[in-house]
Amino acid sequence: MARGEGKRRGSVRSAALVSCALATVLLPGCAQQSDLVKQEKELTAKIAKLDQAIGETRAKFNQDLTTLREDELPALRGNLDKGSNRFETIQRRLDDVENKSAARLNVLEKIQHDQANLLKTDRDRVQEELAKLAETVGVLARTVDARLGGHDKTLEQLSRSLTDLSAKVEADGKLTSEHLAEVNKSVSSVAKALRTVGEAIETREAEQDRRLDEMAKAMHGMAAQAGKVKEGKPAKGGKQAPHAGDAADAGPARGAAPVVAAEGAAADGEDKNYEQSLQAFRNGDFDGARKGFSDYLQHHPDSKLAGNAQYWLGECYYGAKDYGQAIEAFDRVQRSYPDSAKVPAALLKKGFAYVALNDRGRASSTLKQVVEAYPRSPEATKAKEKLAQLQ
Fold first, then answer.
1. Phi, psi angles (nearest 5°) of residue 316
2. Domain 192-390: what homologous superfamily?
3. Domain boundaries, the chain
4. What is the C-alpha to C-alpha distance for residues 214 and 263, in angstroms, rounded to an integer?
5. How large is the C-alpha radius of gyration of the chain?
6. For the chain, what is the total number of helices (H) and then of strands (E)?
7. Would you say 234 and 240 are in contact if contact means Cβ atoms under 8 Å apart?
């Protein structure tokens, strides 16, 4: 840049000298020469001012260039680095999204593959059954032909039957395919359906346990009646009536759901009040049954049915879905009536109440206590099944 400025200044000076030379040649006389000298001085002064202006401009340019290098260039580089970091961050996020999308795509592909295999298996099974059916029809046709011979009408009917069966099988296959397609669309409802089935199974098991319990109580009552008959103590009307307390203490409740077992025949006094409360529970009147059992425990805390009443009080809370009160009531069976036959059932239902509250830790601990303390009881079997579900 300095070299260019020098060239420009030399050019200006050369031009001035050339101008002076021309003026000397063309203009005669000393006066004209004096004017030329004067003009040369003026030109020289202007050139000096021009050089000074160029120097100032160069200094300012250098200063601006230095400022640009020292201040603005680092800032630009910093912004560039920030932009690069943001780009890398966005790129990593895009990579994560791509990886997650690929994982989900793999899961969907696996589900589609499994469903395709299931559909293929069903189709193969249908085809196999169709082949067996065709073979059976063929055997029948050959048997009929061998025995009766010439019964084209029968063979035609069999053929039509085979055609109808084939059409039915194809229709069933189509329905199966449509069903599988619906299953693919409603996978999320499978869990709900399984829960519904589980509840139905539990209800059925509870009903079976209730019937078994009632049969056990009835047999116990019959045995007691037979014993009293042997002792020569016939009941009123020639029959020996079993005592309500004996039937009630024959065994613990067997069900995982609220189970209503026959606790004994109604009698006078405290047994009658107990039976009325139990009947209210059977009828689904949990509030009435709860009040009745509470009154019974308040007035007859030392009765042989007190442990049973405490257990059914817990069942009333459990049936009303007041699981906190149910846990407290079941726990009191073991604390206040440790010798009661209802203790295993109370522990089992206490564990189920914890499950209903989604407290898996306490539920597992309580159910394990049933298995360890009463390993041969039906309650231990149900506790093991519930523990397996909690895994």
1. -65, -45
2. Tetratricopeptide repeat domain (1.25.40.10)
3. 2-85, 115-187, 192-390
4. 8
5. 52
6. 13, 0
7. yes
